[in-house]
From TrEMBL, chain A:
It comes from Methylomonas subterranea. InterPro entries: UCP030820. It comes from the Bacteria. The lineage of its organism: Bacteria, Pseudomonadati, Pseudomonadota, Gammaproteobacteria, Methylococcales. This is DUF934 domain-containing protein.
Automatic annotation (TrEMBL), chain B:
Residues 53-109, 346-397 form the Nitrite/Sulfite reductase ferredoxin-like domain. Keywords: 4Fe-4S, Heme, Iron, Iron-sulfur, Metal-binding, Oxidoreductase. It comes from the Bacteria. Residues 119-271, 408-546 form the Nitrite/sulphite reductase 4Fe-4S domain. Transmembrane segments: none annotated. It holds the Pfam family NIR_SIR_ferr. Gene3D superfamilies: 3.90.480.20, Sulfite Reductase Hemoprotein, domain 1, Sulfite Reductase Hemoprotein,Domain 2. This is Nitrite/sulfite reductase.
Length: 150, 550
């Protein structure tokens, strides 16, 4: 399934690895828990590394590891769980994270505009027909009030 | 009042376009009911017992006459010829058809109105004092800050999917007329020891199932930090507020479960990180205050001597002036309450014809503006004393001059079982019954300041828990019963009412209320208000009378 990155459609090169699964080759993301517990094995991995955050994960706990992490996936267990919006905001403005932040899971195309504004720059697309809708959502509004976000 | 610039106008028009698309996708089956529910709620659209209910925003209760005319037009063209003012100073329509709502919103947008964030788990309409800018006890007009907050909250990308709804109120006067302590965030304009004006910020207040009075989290906040402080509270709440149980998801539960001290520490830590990056500059405040500059009052108005004679000559007029008007900071002017509590009409309702007529009266007598109050009445805030008599006659002809503001028949009432799909019991019918039982205006005036708030269910839209007399509709095996509380208040001495006893049956509620009033009349000392008597004698005398022979 393709993804949207910087408002363009791209092929996804990343694989999320479950906590109990062996590490495959290529670019992988793991849970925050596995990141903390398995850091030694992960540092030997040949591909790029990323972390998939749950809404309950504390960004501060990633600390200095952020420079090693090339992708942070913010997982939506349900579209109305809005913690990912603050997580993205903190990653960009507080921790200066420059890598890719990708929305994954049960978010809606209608949330793309807000997600983009808090610093999410990539979107896993759950269904091909969502692609066009999600791409158009970047243009839902041409104006904004809050000066401190994108 | 605040006038939209091009950006403001573009934003609400783009929201109409976005909502039109969302509605279309839902109707086509491309958007699931749960997803559409969240999206439509954030645009004020509920699905109710009979039809969708649309809640239109009236930011801090301020309306221009052309907006009133548009509300009338919408009532005629999309509804059944009337609308309803809510306890959040907003307007509700009970009968619009879902597929026509985008068109309705497009019409509202032509007069700088919208339904953005009037429902849903997001930042709601900022409310304020309906006498802001004209009252005699004000430190500073709160409306410029309300508008600054309105803009900050509107489409805030980080806080659109909060654990639960979030309400902010601002007051700048000594007497709290905005129920500030019962909001998720309450803001009072205050002066510190150095003589500077800033804000006292409260958090964790709220009504609903678990009514809690807000607590001070910042005794004095410099003006320039207003938005950064609000943002810090919201970020802490968004990340830590409970999402596992919707009845424990409001910020009041977070504050309670975390503990006030620790909650404040969390907010302060967050605030220190952001406060210098989002300063509210003096120029911005000054520019916003210019939007709320006083109108061109006539300096000669103060030399009026006619009113005293009119008051002496006409007892009906004198009563109306006493109950339905308030002192104004400018000599020769008064603020006039337009009562939406006419006995035969559901509390807060107004017809399209009344709206149109009122718009004309606003143009003629009050600089073209009207305010809505959180007690579901309207205000013409800048009326010349010399115009009062004529205005009274005109309002009376429109059935908008019932002299009952602040009295027992000035009830707050939700739509109840008649309209709302959440309700357990009727409220409008009970309000009518109570009105019928209390048909003697002299008696009503004699018993004075008694606030009855009545909600048809635990959600408490009519703020029953802070009514001097609170009435809560409950369902008992399919029958409508009513729980009574006494001693609540949403003003400076905010208090949650205490339960009188077991719920009473529908056929006994009105008599229970009249018995409560009887007890007050028997027990009161000279000049003692209902609330003071309840405080002094406690609930027992009321209990004895209400539950005798029941």
């Amino acid at each position: 399934m393709p993804i949207i990155k910087d408002q363009r459609i791209l092929e996804n090169t990343w694989t999320f690895v479950a906590d109990d699964a062996p590490l495959p080759g290529g670019d992988i993301t793991v849970s925050a828990q596995r990141w903390t517990e398995d850091k030694a094995a992960l540092s030997q991995h040949a591909g790029k590394l990323g972390v998939r955050l749950a809404p309950t994960d504390n960004i501060a706990a990633l600390g200095e590891d952020l420079s090693l992490i090339k992708l942070i996936e913010l997982n939506f267990p349900a579209f109305n769980d809005g913690r990912a919006f603050s997580q993205a905001r903190l990653l960009r403005s507080r921790y200066g994270y420059q890598g890719e932040i990708r929305a994954v899971g049960n978010y809606m195309a209608d949330q793309v505009f807000y997600l983009h504004r808090v610093g999410v720059d990539a979107f896993e697309v759950n269904h091909p027909k969502e692609l066009e809708l999600a791409l158009s959502a970047f243009k839902d509004f041409t104006v904004r009030y809050q000066a401190s976000t994108l | 009042m605040y006038q939209y610039n091009e950006q403001d106008q573009t934003l609400i028009e783009e929201r109409v376009t976005q909502f039109r698309g969302q509605t279309q996708r839902f109707l086509n089956g491309d958007l699931g009911p749960d997803e559409f529910r969240a999206l439509r709620l954030m645009n004020g659209l509920y699905v109710q017992t009979h039809a969708p209910m649309l809640r239109v925003a009236v930011p801090y209760g301020l309306l221009a006459s052309r907006q009133l005319r548009m509300l009338a037009k919408v009532a005629r063209d999309y509804d059944k010829g009337y609308c309803h003012f809510t306890t959040r100073q907003n307007v509700q329509y009970n009968w619009p058809a879902l597929e026509r709502v985008p068109d309705l919103l497009a019409e509202l947008a032509t007069v700088q109105m919208h339904a953005i964030q009037t429902s849903g788990n997001c930042l709601r309409n900022t409310t304020s004092d309906h006498l802001a800018g004209v009252c005699v006890d004000e430190l500073e007009d709160p409306r410029p800050y309300c508008e600054i907050i309105r803009q900050w909250t509107t489409l805030h990308p980080e806080f659109a999917y909060l654990p639960r709804k979030f309400k902010i109120a601002v007051s700048g006067s000594e007497h709290d007329r905005a129920a500030v302590q019962l909001h998720d965030i309450g803001v009072y304009l205050v002066r510190n020891d150095q003589g500077e004006i800033g804000f006292r910020v409260l958090a964790g207040g709220g009504l609903g199932r678990t009514p809690i009075i807000g607590q001070t989290v910042k005794p004095f906040l410099e003006k320039k930090y207003l938005l950064s402080y609000l943002e810090a509270i919201l970020r802490v709440y968004n990340l830590l507020g409970r999402r596992d149980n919707k009845y424990k998801a409001r910020i009041k539960i977070l504050v309670k479960e975390t503990g006030l001290e620790k909650f404040i520490a969390l907010v302060e830590a967050e605030w220190l990180q952001i406060r210098d990056s989002m300063l509210l500059e003096d120029e911005r405040i000054a520019a916003m205050r210019a939007h709320f500059a006083p109108p061109a009052y006539e300096s000669a108005a103060g030399s009026d001597t006619e009113l005293a004679q009119r008051l002496a000559d006409d007892a009906g007029f004198a009563k109306w002036v006493k109950y339905n008007s308030a002192d104004h900071r400018v000599p020769g002017y008064r603020a006039v309450f337009v009562s939406l509590k006419e006995p035969d009409s559901p509390p807060g309702d107004i017809t399209a014809e009344q709206l149109d007529a009122l718009a004309n009266l606003a143009d003629e007598y009050s600089f073209g503006e009207v305010r809505s109050t959180h007690r579901q009445n309207l205000v013409l805030a800048d009326v010349k004393q010399t115009d009062l008599y004529t205005l009274w006659q005109k309002l009376d002809a429109l059935k908008l001059a019932t002299p009952n503001i602040g009295t027992v028949t000035d009830m707050i009432c939700c739509p109840g079982l008649d309209f709302c799909s959440l309700a357990n019991a009727g409220s409008i019918g009970i309000a009518r019954e109570i009105n019928e039982a209390l048909d003697d205006m002299d008696y009503i005036h004699d018993i004075g300041d008694i606030k009855i708030n009545m909600s048809g269910c635990m959600n408490g839209c009519a703020h029953q828990s802070v009514g001097h007399i609170g009435i809560l509709g409950v369902d008992k095996k399919g029958e409508e019963w009513y729980q009574i509380t006494l001693g609540g208040s949403s003003e400076n001495e905010a208090a949650i009412g205490e339960r009188l006893g077991p719920a009473v049956a529908k056929q006994q509620i009105t008599e229970s209320i009249t018995r409560i009033l009887d007890v007050y009349v028997q027990q009161r000392l000279e000049d003692e208000t209902f609330l003071q008597t309840v405080k002094r004698v406690g609930l027992e005398p009321f209990r004895e009378k209400v539950y005798a022979n029941h």
